[in-house]
Amino acid sequence: MIAQPPDTPAKAARVLVLDDEPQILRALRVVLREAGFEVVPAQTAAEALDRAAVRPPEAAIVDLVLPDGDGVEVTRRLREWSEMPILVLSAVGDEEQKVRALEAGADDYITKPFGSRELVARLQAALRRARGGEEPRLSVDGLEVDLAARAVRRDGHDVHLTPIEFDLLRVLVRNRGRLLTHRSLLSEVWGPEFVDDIQPLRTHIARLRAKIEPEGPVPRYIVTDPGVGYRFAL
């Protein structure tokens, strides 16, 4: 009998990590390695772009403020040739910087100081999306969404959504965990000619929440990033 080879362990995802602060870079290396990732560290934009070109990573975490540029430009340069998930990490918390990063092609935005579990969860969610791991059906905390059947149930009861409400939910669920700007949601659901018309979006989000969210002061599923957009929570 021919001996069977041992099971091959899953290959660790290779993640480019760009931050000019040594202590932050060191912390990120520890957190990601413990979570099973292979870390490629860089402290400048030039170093990060060179390393990505030589051996492309599967994802990138990019600081916004760098000694030789900024993370928005690095994101834009990476996005010219790669569809890898890119998470922007920065102490800068203003709305304009978030929108710039997301519109340059970032998949998500995490503000320092960050929780290690949240960072890893966001990265894993981004990688699942990139690998086509999103399921057509979702069941979480009493909410069931079947995208193929266009059916929604809450605590076992059918929820009747308008076509616009379902289309909004569909986009949010397919990008679960990802921060979507107002402009991207408006373009996806209403069309590119409506990207500046934010009030109808807010109105439909409020109506959608009223139908699917459990009672309470804080939304469980559709989370707001003030002035930037919405995400479907992890």
What does this structure look like?
This protein is of the alpha/beta class. The protein is built from eight helices and 14 strands. The strands form four sheets. A five-stranded parallel β-sheet has the order 2-1-3-6-7, sandwiched between helices. The chain has a four-stranded antiparallel β-sheet with strand order 8-9-10-11, with no helix packed on it. A three-stranded antiparallel β-sheet has the order 12-14-13. Strand 9 and strand 10 (151-154) form a beta hairpin. The N and C termini lie far apart (47 Å). The model is unreliable at 1-9 (pLDDT under 50).
Brief overview:
It contains eight helices and 14 strands. The chain has 234 residues and is of the alpha/beta class.
Radius of gyration: 19 Å
Helical region count?
Answer: 8
Gross geometry: globular
Through-space gap between termini: 47 Å
Mean pLDDT: 87
- Secondary structure category: alpha/beta
- Roughly what fraction of the amino acids lie in strands? 15-25%
Strands, total number = 14
Specify the helix fraction band: 25-40%
Q: What does the largest sheet look like?
A: 5 strands, parallel
Biggest sheet strand order reads 2-1-3-6-7
Low-confidence stretches: 1-9
